[in-house]
Amino acid sequence: MRETPNFTGWRATILHRPDATTERLTRQLKLLGLHVSVQWEPLAPADLPDIVLVDADQGWDDLLPWHDSKAPLPVVALLGSEAPGRIAWAMEQGAGAIIAKPVAASAVYPTLVMAVAIHAERTMASRQLQHLEERVRLRPLVHAAVQKIMAARKVDEEHAYSILRNCAMQRRFPMEQIAALILAGAGPLPEAG
User: Fold this and answer.
1) How far is CA 133 from CA 23, 72, 128, 168, 171, in A?
2) Which residues contact 8 (CB under 8 A, 6 or more apart)?
3) Please, which pLDDT band fits residue 50 given cuts at 50, 70 and 90?
4) Segment 124-146 mean pLDDT
């Protein structure tokens, strides 16, 4: 993330008991252009805001509707304690940044920027991992297509793989997709080049 986001129009939910912390935080978030709601009940999965700020000192496991740190949005932990268990809980909820309590107005904007950037990086890394896992899962198709090319064209494995790779590059498709087409008989076998 190279540029800092403009938070105007974003919806923020503060999961914290109403007190001086929430008043100060709400005031600062509104100055940044966010629409703010404060609640001390579990967040509904059907109506998620753009960013969540959660009391990590008193939060509980079902306060947020996701598990395993897979937050679908940026999360900021509000933390006044140094208790390792509370820090671990915040991390388990997917917190990408922490605002220390009592809240300093100057900490809010940089923390929001950090939480948004970390969430974007996590999302991108997760997508890349899913893509790579899918490619690994489809590797047997590539191997089977290479075997089919070897048998049909009477070439060695390296040459058959090269034929498959060249065909994929010419058609601008992933090798796994070309391999699936070859195995399904959806087209002629690529020519030896």
Assistant:
1) 45, 20, 9, 19, 23
2) 32, 33, 34
3) very high
4) 90
- Residue 32 binned pLDDT confidence (cut-offs 50, 70, 90): very high
77 phi, psi to nearest 5 deg = -90, 135
- The rounded distance, in Å, linking the Cα atoms of 75 and 115 is 6
Contacts of 133 (CB under 8 A, 6+ apart): none
Phi, psi of 179 (to 5 degrees): -60, -45
User: What is the residue whose two structure tokens read 């997760």?
Assistant: 126
